[in-house]
């Protein structure tokens, strides 16, 4: 732990991919006197013979003073259970985990996200999650009769992968595909049509309960993820946009969150929250807005979760 010069407490950046985001986080941590070290959750392990019961590569016999979760690779149910288990175990050991495993679990599960948003009275499109294809078809028919089509999404999907519109799509009837391709589960969300030919949605970054940056994503395709070619454009963070994004992050108990919203004239503030990302990327948003998001994340982690005032140096007992 004791470097030749200044002592630097170590923060784990848990990620399956090192690159721009991890570099920005390490730089922001270094500016505050912390050593950010990347570790892949796939390589972390339980070991009841180690003093902490855990082995985090790069941390020797010790645990980090905090952990930032930046990426979790896909894997088998067993592997994911172990990876999330490591996050739970860190929390149980008193290590602040940002975002907490419980918040990550809630947000990767789109059905749970819809449930928690609706329960917190955050405007979100109506959604259903069910295992019976026959029941799903009945919902499709009912929704089509009311003039709506539905989006069938992989429960744990990301980056716009695997989404299909079903029911009455542009005047044509699209049947429900075989649910085997969706893990035997129909997660259906009512489609919110765009107000014009080039549709858009919003991505708002919430850090420590406050919305700090927003962009619109423009695309002619109805799936408007930047990973799918949508164009990110800086957008003003209006009070209604900030308010609903903050409410969404709070409903899921997030330290930081990338909140996706759609314009919808039928919603109270003209906005609906479509998704909340607990392991959100922010490169496109930072490029569009120029806000230093890694610095905001690090300042919030150190201030709110570790009690270290801005400008203070870390102390050897881990406090500020
Ligand atoms: N209910 C919906 N109505 C209209 N567009 C939607 C809806 N759901 C998803 N989309 C489009 O698909 C994109 C990806 O959906 P999202 O739920 O955010 O999943 P992912 O986790 O793959 O990003 C959204 O950014 C949006 O452009
Ligand atoms: Mg999304």
Average pLDDT, all residues: 93
Strand fraction band? 25-35%
Number of helices: 8
- Identify the strand order in the major beta sheet: 7-11-8-9-10
CATH architecture of the largest domain: 3-Layer(aba) Sandwich
Which fold does the CATH topology of the largest domain refer to?
A: Rossmann fold
CATH top level of the largest domain is Alpha Beta
Largest sheet: 5 strands, antiparallel
Distance between the termini: 17 Å
Share of helix among residues?
25-40%
SSE succession:
EHEEEEHEHHEHEEEEEEEHEEHH
Bound molecules: adenosine-5'-diphosphate, magnesium ion
What structural class results from the helix and strand content? Answer: alpha+beta
Poorly predicted runs: none
Write the layout of secondary structure elements.
Layout: E1 10-14, H1 20-31, E2 35-39, E3 45-46, E4 54-55, E5 66-69, H2 77-92, E6 97-98, H3 101-108, H4 110-119, E7 127-130, H5 133-145, E8 149-153, E9 164-169, E10 172-174, E11 186-190, E12 199-207, E13 210-219, E14 231-234, H6 239-251, E15 256-263, E16 271-277, H7 283-289, H8 293-305
Parallel strand pairs: 1-2, 1-5, 5-6
Antiparallel strand pairs: 3-4, 7-11, 8-9, 8-11, 9-10, 12-13, 12-15, 13-14, 15-16
Helix pairs in contact: 1-8
Bound molecules: adenosine-5'-diphosphate and magnesium ion.
